[in-house]
Amino acid sequence: MRDLFERLEMIRTKATSSEKTVKDITGDIRSLDTAKNNLVASMTTLRRLQMLESGAIQLQSLTDERNLREAAQSLDAVKALQTSFKTFMAVERVATTSRRIADAQQRLKTAAMEEYENFLQEAGSTTPIRSTAVPDAALALDAIGSDAVNALLDWYCALQLREYRRIFRATDEAGQLDNVSRRFAWFRRVVKQHDEEHSGGFLEGWQAAKALTARFADITREDIKSALIRERPKLQVTTLLEALQATMEYEAQASKRFGGVPFSQIYAANPRPNISSVFEPYLGLFVEAQDKALAELMANYRRQGTTLPSQADITNNAGGPPPASSPGSHPTVLPSSTELFYFYRQSLEQCSRLTNRSAFRDLITVFRRYLRAYGEDVLRAALLSARPPRPDGRRSTSLSTDTRTSVQDLQRWCLVLNTADYCANTCTQLEQRLKAKIHEEYKEQVTLEPDREVFEAIVAAAVTVLTREGEMAVEPGIPHKMMRGGSGNVQPWLSLTQVHGKSSYVDEVRTSLESVAVVVRQDVENKRYVRSWCDRTAHVVLLKWTHALVRLLLQRPSTPGQQPTSLGRSRPAIEQLLVDLYEIKATLLELPQHTPSEQSSASALGYARHVERNVGRVEALLRLMLVPLDEGDATSQKGELREEAFLSEYVRLCAVDLTGAPGDAGPESGLASLANLQKAIDLKCGNAPGAGGGGTAGARLSDALVDRFFALVDAAVAAKATGSESVAGRDDRPTPAGLATLLSTLEMDPPPPGALVTPPPALDF
């Protein structure tokens, strides 16, 4: 190992010695190479310096000779050489040459500017600019640099607009706001002259036309701003809009000229605001003008109300909005509504051409205010009728229920409904249009939902008014003629010995109801509301018929000892009422007048189910009244059988679960149905509420039926516990649904005849 280390050390020593020997041998060679490189660089620099000095002399000579084209080329070459001597500026010879070049460059700039001045300031010159030295001067200035070019453009723009500033001074008539269009006409002539006579003297990259347009925009913007401030106290909206329109038309033309670039970015080196931006703070005048115009329109609409214009008025309004109906027919919506939205559309288009910012938002606020005013003061007012002044001198308004409604009134209310529906739908479209046009900054503030809800509330109120009219139309038949004058005299019904077809009042109900329905079907445009009216009218008619039925069932005969003692025990009377109910049902099913193609539609089938369900409840009550009861001897075997039959029918028709506990899901439990049972017994026996007479035969029968019902419940519970089935609880016949619902909501002291059951429409928005 020692020998190995000694050998390695010896090799390292020899290598170091060899390296030193090589460096000694090549050192002189490296020195010679460095000297050679320095010599070459010095010779190159001296040669370039000679070229720079020669170029400077040549540049001076060409400048003195006013040979601008060659001087521009020489200047380009000199500048290229000059970049090599940036680190030698401390050398006197280099510094002297640089000063000579700068001096020659300044004289070249002066010579070039003189060429422009001589050509552009020479009056009446017809020499084409390309035939002069101006294009060579352009090359010289471009070679000098951007500062020289900008100085030329500033001078040129000032020269071209010098006359403009003199003519359109703010203190002169031409500088007034109503002469804005003359400004742009004047400048168009300047631009035309530039394109035809001067553009050849400017390099394309300088964008001289853009610079001229930008300078004109700066001057005009400040002039118009001053004019607006000065004329603000007496500023007319017409003058303002004409000036703004002329400005925006010019900006659009200028933008199109420069490739569709936004006007504010035409001169990209220094973006500027639009000229039209100075009008923005004053556009409130436009909004105020629209507000005044809408106020006049609304005052006219209030005077007109829902009165349709004459044919002469329609003819004279040929330039207005399109008619809302076909020629020869009365309008389906109020012409004032289409006129209002036509005005909105025109104002919207005009304002969107002017601005889409704060003034546009303010205009939307005005739109909303008059939409609500139209709904409240025109449409809502049409659903109200004036009452005589109150003792305090104030006027009160309420729906009129004092007189029968004419066809004209029905048509007017249908017109109100159609108009409110049209306005609600148009509000949705208008909101979408407004959001599409307004600036993104204000888009979240745009909503017409509250205004749409006002019109939807008016639609609902109009349907309610029409429903009340349908109720008033059937009033002579139900309950007055049904109750033989409305007094509740049950005597004629108890005198019946057999069914004689439908009663006379049914035809009157059919005729009266159809007189309203035919107008609703023909005049209400949206069939969804026709269906709504039919649904509500069917419910109201059946409710009035049920109220009259309850009054008849609870009325005792005026002759003592007369048999039967109540309507519920008169089988012929109940059967006659069933016949009448079927006729009423047929009348209600015919209300919508569905075409054959509509018979199988979801709407037609849904309405039929609605009528069937409501009629079925009343029919079930009459079916229960058909079950005989013996009032004379409730303890006899025959009486007990009839009582059990009555209770069994009640259990079946009401779907009572005798074994269920109160609160159980599913069918009504036996104990929970006790209140309904008591109502059914009172109707069967003619026990009017508060009539007293606990010792009468009717009261005894009522008590016996309740006791027997408890016995049935106990028997059913016991049978369920032992696994057997109560006889009274078993019935395989189909169970009509709804009697329990009818009894639970039935008023045993219904409103008096003549009282409307349809609630008044909600017209407080």
TrEMBL record:
Database matches in Pfam families: VPS53_C (PF16854), Vps53_N (PF04100)
Vps53 C-terminal domain: residues covered: 575-633
UniProt keyword terms in alphabetical order: Endosome, Golgi apparatus, Membrane
Vps53 N-terminal domain span: 1-301
GO biological process terms held by the UniProt record: retrograde transport, endosome to Golgi
Major location (coarse): membrane
Cellular compartments per GO CC: cytosol; endosome membrane; GARP complex
Record has Protease as a keyword: no
Chain intervals for the UniProt region annotation (Disordered): 308-332
InterPro entries: Vps53 (IPR039766), Vps53_C (IPR031745), Vps53_C_sf (IPR038260), Vps53_N (IPR007234)
Polar residues: compositionally biased ranges: 308-317
Membrane topology, from the record: Peripheral membrane protein
Annotated localization: Endosome membrane; Golgi apparatus, trans-Golgi network membrane
Family in the record: Belongs to the VPS53 family.
Protein name as annotated: Uncharacterized protein
Species of provenance: Jaminaea rosea
Species classification: Eukaryota, Fungi, Dikarya, Basidiomycota, Ustilaginomycotina
